[in-house]
Structures are given as structure tokens and as C-alpha cells.
Design a protein that fits this description.
The chain has 408 residues and is of the alpha/beta class. 36% of the residues lie in helices and 16% in strands. A seven-stranded mixed sheet has the order 4-10-9-8-7-5-6, sandwiched between helices. A four-stranded mixed sheet has the order 1-2-3-13. Strands 11-12-15-14 form a four-stranded antiparallel sheet, covered by helices on one side. The structure holds pyridoxal-5'-phosphate. Pyridoxal-5'-phosphate binds next to helix 5. Its EC number is 2.6.1.13. This is ornithine aminotransferase. InterPro entries: Aminotrans_3 (IPR005814), Aminotrans_3_PPA_site (IPR049704), Class-III_PLP-dep_AT (IPR050103), Orn_aminotrans (IPR010164), PyrdxlP-dep_Trfase (IPR015424), PyrdxlP-dep_Trfase_major (IPR015421), PyrdxlP-dep_Trfase_small (IPR015422).
Length: 408
């Protein structure tokens, strides 16, 4: 008879990963075993407030009841068909998602990087079929300090050497211009340009928010130049900034929106390219696809996510609690915080490098029961689930103050 394996401690589990798991991440030393709402619990039963929310994949918190129920119901009926057949969940998902974003058609995929790859392919195809760019000459203009994922094509236009070095040769056809610089964009766009691809807010770069008018300017410029405006809303979208999409802050409707992360409700990977009909209809059978994209489980969870967003409650919470977050961070400027940028429930907080790196501050916060993650250097990113309460937010801010005052 085999006995159940002895439960292993956090330290043992971390040590056990070392020889068998690729070292492509440097996680905080916490081993999460269960979670509910904005709280997670580690193997030893210690509780932490999750102020990262899976890089915005958990906008509705851990295990939101409506999402868990939708997943359970679907698990009991049908999980995968591949796109060789139709499934009875997909039409509704596409209808609702298109309506939510104000666009027409949906290409369902799985991960964020896949949505970006798919968006690039669609933009190039559109350039050849509709715009009339000569074969293999299409260009896509992107912004410096972007983060769009990790595939070979996507890192081809990254400006982060850690993401690129050692992974060439790179895919040609991209032009990089400074973010938040309309004049540079204007100069880079020409008759070969298929699209301008940008994040409405640059998350990995440290939650960099462009000047007012930039997104509207990109919209105007791309329309005038006859190329597509592709907004990567994989991290900024689906309620995070207080609107369904971050581009809504400037009343902009792009030609194509890339979604992921929270679209899967923290349960399954679900991503999508959502676009105007004229754009997405360039794809024909056999030209693009994914075995798992649009599977019935993903479609059921994705539809439940869209239904939560249709209520407007999460966007409202992000906007209202975003004020609490901003005011709390303003009060910390000069007390260990040198500056911050925030929109809705999303902030990049620059801590005084004399007090430690972003990593060190994140570790100190972890020991005090708050989970965050650093981005670059001394910047810490805050992105709690949109279900967080004002009291929980204030607790996180108090802990940050304590950690930065070296009392921790
Ligand atoms: C803006 C943006 N685009 C794309 C991605 C890639 O998503 P995934 O990690 O699901 O491939 C991310 C992930 O952080 C992101 O923030």
C-alpha cells in the first residue's frame, strides 16, 4: 500500500523546484496553496493580501463565484471540440465581447502573446489585401519600452535587452519610436505601415501613462495615414483603469483591440483579437488558428467575464477605489516614495533607491503580508483585484509606509 506523500513546507517546495523547473522567473519566496477574493494563503496557512492579481489576470479576484460556477457548469457538459467543429458556447462569447468593446468581430486565442502574434498577422494581411502594400513590405510601428509578450517575433521589437539577448535572429518589419511622442510616430509612418501597435498604458515599463491627447492623436494620425491603430489592452483592459478599455479615457475606438489575462477570469487562458469587420475578415480558413482557441470552457468563462463587466460595477469600483489609491500614494510622496503614476486600480510606485530595490521592498511587503511585484529598478507595481475593499487598500498603503520607514 502506498501512503500519501508527506506535505512539504514552503522552503522544501521552493528547493524542490530548483533542479527541475526552468529558471525563467525569479518569484518571491511565497508558495501559494489556496486563495479567495483578494486574499491568498501559503502552504503554512499564512495569509497575504494580493496586490498584484496575476498581473491583472485576476481582476475579479481569486475564484469569483460567478466565474467558478460558469466553469463548473461547463466542465460538466463539454470542454473541448477544437475548431474542427462548432461548439454551442462560442457564438455568444463573440457576440458579447464584440458588443462590450464596440467592435465587430472576434478571433479567439489563448495567451496574450498569441493575441499579439495574431494581431500582427491580421494587420499584415490587411495591409496586403486591403491597403495594397507590396508583398513582404508591410511595417508595424511600435513604442520603445513596450511589453507585448515573449515569442520570437514579439521580442524582435522589444527594447529590453534581457528579453532579446540570445534569441535572435529577429523578425523584420518593425519600427520602434519613443512612447508618448506623436511627432516621432508621424515620421515613422509611411505607405508601407500596416499598423501602429501600442499599449494605452505601458504596464511592464512601470505603469507609464501617456500625456492627455496622445491616444486621440494616435487615432487621428493612423486614420489620416490609412493604417490600423492596434491597442494592446491585455493588461490595461477589462476594468483595470476604471473603464472597460483604457482607450476609453480618450473616447478612442481603435481598429483592433488585443485582450487576454482577465478575459480568462483567472481560471483558463483566454485571449482575443477584437476588430472591425473590414479588418478581421481578411482571414480565411487555414490561414490562422489554434487548437484551444475558442474552446467551450474558455468561451463559457469568457462570457461570464463579459457579463460581469456589462454590469459596470468593476469599472466603477476601479475608478472609485483608484481615488483612494492615488490619495494614499500622494501622502507617501517624500516618505520613501519618490513618485508614482496611477490610473484606476493600477499604479507604478517609484521608491527611494536608498531604501532598497523594488525587489527588496516587495520582499519586505511580503513578510508583512502584502504581495506585490517590482518592475524595473526601484519601481513597485500595484494592481489589486477590482474586488478589493477600501479598508484592504488602506491596509496595503499603511504597510507600504511602514516598510519604507524601515520599521519593518
Ligand atoms: C500588454 C501586454 N501584452 C501582452 C502580454 C503577454 O501576455 P501573456 O503573458 O499571456 O502571453 C502581457 C503580459 O504581461 C502584457 O502586459
Amino acid at each position: 500500500m502506498t501512503s500519501a506523500p508527506r506535505p512539504r513546507s514552503s522552503a522544501e517546495l521552493i528547493a524542490a523546484e530548483e533542479p527541475v523547473l526552468a529558471h525563467n522567473y525569479h518569484p518571491l519566496p511565497v508558495v501559494v496553496a489556496r486563495a479567495e477574493g483578494a486574499w491568498v494563503e501559503d502552504v503554512e496557512g499564512r495569509r497575504y493580501l494580493d496586490m498584484l492579481a496575476g498581473y491583472s489576470a485576476l481582476n475579479f479576484g481569486h475564484r469569483h463565484p460567478a466565474l467558478i460556477e460558469a466553469a463548473h457548469r461547463q466542465l460538466d457538459r463539454l470542454t473541448l471540440t477544437s475548431r474542427a467543429f462548432h461548439n454551442d458556447r462560442l457564438a455568444r462569447f463573440a457576440e458579447r465581447l464584440a458588443a462590450l468593446t464596440g467592435l465587430d468581430m472576434v478571433l479567439p486565442m489563448n495567451t496574450g502573446a498569441e493575441a499579439v502574434e495574431s494581431g500582427i498577422k491580421v494587420a499584415r494581411k490587411w495591409a496586403y489585401d486591403v491597403k495594397g502594400v507590396p508583398a513582404d513590405r508591410a511595417t508595424i510601428v511600435v513604442a520603445a519600452d513596450n511589453f507585448h509578450g515573449r515569442t520570437t517575433t514579439i521580442v524582435s521589437f522589444s527594447t529590453d535587452e534581457t528579453a532579446r539577448a540570445g534569441f535572435g535572429p529577429f523578425t523584420p518589419g518593425f519600427r520602434v519610436v519613443p512612447y508618448n511622442d506623436l511627432a516621432a510616430l508621424e515620421e515613422a509612418v509611411d505607405e508601407t505601415t500596416a499598423a501602429v501597435l501600442i499599449e494605452p498604458i505601458q504596464g511592464e515599463a512601470g505603469v507609464l501613462i501617456p500625456d492627455d491627447g496622445y491616444l486621440a492623436g494616435v487615432r487621428e494620425l493612423t486614420r489620416r495615414a490609412g493604417c490600423l491603430f492596434v491597442a494592446d489592452e491585455i493588461q490595461s483592459g477589462l476594468g483595470r483603469t476604471g473603464r472597460t478599455l483604457a482607450v476609453e479615457h480618450e473616447s478612442v475606438v481603435p481598429d483592433m483591440v488585443l485582450l487576454g489575462k482577465a478575459l480568462g477570469g483567472g481560471i483558463v487562458p483566454v485571449s482575443a483579437v477584437v476588430a472591425r469587420r473590414e479588418v478581421l475578415q481578411v482571414l480565411h480558413p487555414g490561414e490562422h488558428g489554434s487548437t484551444f482557441g475558442g474552446n467551450p470552457l474558455a468561451a463559457a468563462v469568457g462570457t461570464a467575464v463579459v457579463e460581469l463587466l456589462e454590469t459596470g460595477e468593476f469599472q466603477r469600483r476601479a475608478a472609485e477605489l483608484g481615488v483612494v489609491l492615488r490619495e494614499g500614494l500622494e501622502a507617501l510622496v517624500g516618505k520613501g516614495v519618490t513618485g508614482f503614476r496611477s490610473r484606476g486600480l493600477w499604479a507604478g510606485v517609484d521608491v527611494d533607491p536608498a531604501l532598497g530595490t523594488g525587489r527588496e521592498v516587495s520582499e519586505r511587503l511580503m513578510r508583512e503580508g502584502i504581495l506585490v511585484k517590482d518592475t524595473h529598478g526601484s519601481t513597485v507595481r500595484l494592481a489589486p483585484p477590482l474586488t478589493v475593499t477600501a479598508d484592504e487598500l488602506l491596509e496595503a498603503l499603511r504597510t507600504l509606509e511602514k516598510v519604507l520607514s524601515r520599521q519593518a
